[in-house]
Write a structure and sequence with these properties.
With about 60 residues, the protein is an all-alpha fold. The chain is built from 3 helices and no strands. Helices cover about 70% and strands about 0% of the residues.
C-alpha cells in the first residue's frame, strides 16, 4: 500500500501527503472489495489487487 500512496503523491505534485495517503488507502480498499466480490475473500493475495487497482487509478 505504501507504493500506491507514493504513486498518488508523484502523479500529482499538488497532492499533500495526507491527501495522497487517503487516496491510496481508498483505492486499495476499493480494489480489495472488487476482488472479494468477484472471487471471495479466502485465498486473496496481494497480486490479485493489481488489475483492479490499475482500473481504479486510471478512472481518477
Amino acid at each position: 500500500m505504501t507504493g500506491h500512496i507514493n504513486s498518488f503523491r508523484l502523479l500529482a505534485q499538488e497532492f499533500a501527503s495526507q491527501k495522497a495517503a487517503i487516496y491510496g488507502v481508498c483505492a486499495h480498499a476499493e480494489a480489495g472489495d472488487r476482488v472479494a466480490i468477484q472471487y471471495g475473500q479466502r485465498g486473496m493475495i496481494a497480486s490479485d489487487l493489481l488489475q483492479p487497482l490499475r482500473a481504479i487509478v486510471n478512472g481518477l
